[in-house]
Amino acid sequence: MPWFRNGVAGVLIGAALAIIAAGAPRAQTVPPTTPNAAPAAPGTVPAAPTAPDAPPADAFGLEVMLTARSIVGIKGTATWDSAYETLLDTFKTIYGFIDRQGLKADGPAMTIYLSTDDSGFHFQAAVPISEPPKELPRGDIAVATSPQGKALKFVHRGSYDAMDNTYEAITNFLDEKRLEAKDLFFEQYMTDLRTTPEDKLVIEVYVPLK
Which one, 16, 28, 133, 150, has the greatest CB density within 10 A? Predict the structure, then answer.
């Protein structure tokens, strides 16, 4: 699949281990009675306290509709070994341009993967902007449009190097659902690559569908 990254070996799927403890039988708990209270019906078990609501799980395979946005970005190439450092330097250049031009970022930074192979990838690092610059940029920086249309959303938490497992899980998800993806995908960084410790990253992965 085109989104395999850096020799993915496989996803580690954990199995739950059930432990059955042998011992004395449980003592039945009898609820205290209050004066004039009606006796509990035979066989009635007191209701367990309600647990607080659990935090919502991260999206994994959520279908979304992407809207095209104006972006300013740089195209480049990188090896998988230097991916994080290359993207980080590229985003520093893009944000420097945004600041110099007095532009306003209009959403998280993203990396659009244009093609990949075993050794590296061709990419477009970009930042959405609220309005195009008054003067078109020169050199490597260009104004473009982000991907649009139907896509699947996945969420990764943790280091950039650990994303191989996430991409393997995405591939398995697509295979199981028999979904056909386009030869393009992108990452959206919900935490700032420039300031967030690498093991604290939150990255949304979008896989456009055919």
Answer: 133
